[in-house]
Amino acid sequence: MNTSNNNSAVWLCLYLPYLPLQVFTRGLSPKDTLKPVVILDRRRVIALNSAAFDTGIRYNNNMDTAYSISHDVISFDKDNDRELTTLTNLGQWAYQFSPAVTIRTPDVLLIEIGASLKLFNGLEALVRAVESGVDALGYTAITTINATPMAALLAAKNNAKSRTENNQAEHHEKNVNDRITHNSAAILASIEMIPVAFLETDRAIIDALQEMGIYRIRDLFKLPMSSLNRRFGIYFTNYLQRLIGLQPDPQKPIDQAPHFFSDIIFMADVTNANSLTFPIKRLLNELDAFLTARQLHINQLSWKLSHRHHSAKVINIHLASPEHNIKALLQLTQIKLEQVKDIKEIDTLSLTVNSFFPANTVSGDLFQAAGYPSHLEPTQGTSRRRQRQTSANALLNLLATRLGPDACFGLSVANDHRPEKSWQRLKPNQINPAVHQETLHNLELQLSQDSQRPLFLLTPPRVLVLINGTPYLNGKLDLLQGPERIDFGWWDRPSTGEIITRDYYVATHQDRGTLYWIFHYVNYGKWYLHGIFS
């Protein structure tokens, strides 16, 4: 928990006043930005872009009026779920600046950055990094700084109003570059000229204050707190005390578990998969920035191609091992898109990643950068092995993407005496150096012990004909070696505890010389052909 009266606390507020619009319009191509777009709530315009404003559409116009002004206008209904999802994703993105990120619905992020100032070379540099990052994601944010979260939020709401009235491209809290002072008098001085209309409280209380002639924060705090408590209740006075740092204001941080989701909505239906290249690159670049900031790798990602009139198409891409290679992900995505034949039109493209792994950092040679030859042979060997593994993984990724996820697999020795179950298939992402070395060791040991076992096994074993108790396979079989007894299966039958016994023999035809591996079921008296020697 973070408290606002912490002497080192610095709260950054990201206020997203255009979020209802930008969840639909961010990431558009330059051509689409010229199209008028409005957001409707109960058939009235609550948000619009500059192109719609230029046509004459205004806030609070009804839908019929908007369409009568411009036949080209594109409308979307306000989507609260999409806005919350976007705010949550932005909270995940902001985690790179501080672990203390709080979501305040419907359009605010509060970030406690006091402990991060030295890491980002000061307050001004950190604020620039946050602002440029939000802008790159396609959102417009009002950024303010203060010693308490509620004071930062109050200033952001006021600055948004000033920005709208003055038509300014940028409008920030005046003390962004200054040292944050944590005493209540200084906090009050920083917000005293803000209208009471921006207080985070009931509208009835704001109306009552204005009827009393109190229009600014400065006037409000001139009144005795006890009188305000009697008139408006303890919740309001507690809020005022938290506002200026007289009371702690703990904030609930977001879940630290990483999650990535981003989507782009098209203004017109996309009917050609080649047209998705630009939005795919944009979403992958966002993923790239997220992985870099959080120092993570991934081994899978999911694309979703949606249309309002059709069922969605999900494209999953699985990697042989966790990595962070956006160029390779773009290539694999394009290969997958070429295989999609049943999608005629798309209006939304989304990218989701739920599984993350810590990035493995690679240390280099301290003196190699200075031009001195390296003498660290183990390091060089590790580097070469890593390069070979990277090349092998790239090939596996390409093959699995083209042929399907089950087309490429590895083999490993299994802990079972039954020949048909003594090995198992592994997915590429299950293969690691430890498993590889263990498999090689067990395989060498098994081959040395089982020199009389064939490599080719029949699945399932073939029943042999018995004549006078002797097995026949296109003729009589002579037993050359055996038996080798294998008792197994009791763990597969826990209720009965029955043990299945096989006696294995090496057999041959007298006239042909082919060697067979056959077994006799002692429990049932049947003979089976299980393998053929080369």
Structural overview:
With 534 residues, the chain is α+β, with helices and mostly antiparallel strands. It folds into four domains: 11-35 and 72-243, no CATH class; 260-358, 2-Layer Sandwich (Dna Ligase, domain 1), CATH 3.30.1490; 410-449, no CATH class; 456-532. It contains 15 helices and 21 strands. The strands form six sheets. Strands 8, 9, 10, 11 and 12 form a five-stranded antiparallel sheet that branches. Helix 10 (225-232) packs across helix 11, helix 12 packs antiparallel against helix 13 (326-339) and helix 13 (326-339) packs parallel to helix 14. The radius of gyration is 34 Å and the shape is elongated. The model is unreliable at 167-178 and 374-379 (pLDDT under 50).
Main attributes of the structure:
alpha+beta; Dna Ligase, domain 1; 4 domains; five-stranded antiparallel beta sheet; 34% helix
Helix content estimate: 25-40%
| Percentage of residues in DSSP E strands | 25-35%
The low-confidence runs, each spanning 5 or more residues with pLDDT under 50, are 167-178, 374-379
Number of helices: 15
Q: What sort of overall outline do the alpha carbons produce when their principal axes are compared?
A: elongated
Task: Evaluate the radius of gyration.
Answer: 34 Å
Mean pLDDT rating:
84
Number of domains: 4
**Secondary-structure-derived class:** alpha+beta
Largest sheet: 5 strands, antiparallel
Spatial gap, N to C terminus = 69 Å
Number of strands: 21
